[in-house]
Predict the 3D structure of the following.
Amino acid sequence: MKTDTQFPLPPYFNINPDTALAALGDPTSTADFGKIASNCNAGRIDLTSRGLETEGTRRLRQFSTWEITRYLIPVAPGHFRRVLKQNPDLPQGRSETSAGAKWFTLDEVQRLRAFFGAQGFKSKGYLPYRPKNQPAKMVAVANFKGGVGKTSTAAHLAMSAALDGYKVLVIDLDSQGSMTSIFGGKVQDEWQTVFPLLARHYAQHLRQENQSRVDRGEAPLPLDETLTEALEIAPRDLVQNTHWPNIDLIGAQLNLYWAEFQIPVWRMAARGWKLWDALTQSLEAGGILDEYDVIFLDTPPALGYLTINGLAAADILLVPLGAL
């Protein structure tokens, strides 16, 4: 058989097993596993130093005076120090040396921002812009393709909004739970995700539908154990704090994908149920839209029922695209 020089055979064609085995090198020994364990331990120590605690929780780093006056609160460093000296009740920061730089937590930055907003010049934007008597703006980050940076985009926008002083809620609609992991969320099962909100919305519709059926002399539709349990869960019950003082989270985990199978079953049983409004109306009824300034929705990389709810709820839609 002649070989076409334009299309050479791949390197694995007619490979010799003995030659391949020799190329693998020596097998891993007990000592090698010891080195791997040592490297893993060094990695854990490094993560701890960067804000990840040994028990798996996260810790937000502190901010220097220079960072605060440069990026977070629009005041001159000298004026900032004078205000702290004149107001000992304000956070004074901490330093490793008497003459070293002062460092503040984001909680303390928020207190300082509120003080400057109340006492400072009205012409300066110490506090973030927030229209009065308006619900939170909901921002969905979506693309039906995976790997284009949806979660990274949503997470960085949420952090940026938090640094600006906004109160932020992040809702993870992706059963992969990457956003939940970024913010250190702990989600045991689907009952700590948005699933109960969707089930609660359907159960409430079913109650109304059953009343109409009874009035017409028809048999009511069954309200099973899942729906009965969902009626006892309020949106606030699902919100958990994160290591960011002004970012909260409704997390996700693998069992959330069950919603993609359960929702169409409910839809077939009650055609009048507006499934695309389930998330929006549940958050509104639970007072969530009044508690936050911005809500970010991280959607799955598919046009499923969870994504539809995210898109229907959004005031703003961002579609990250991969680089060409």
User: Anything to note?
Assistant: Strands lie at 63-64, 103-104, 137-141, 168-172, 240-241, 247-250, 294-298, 316-318.
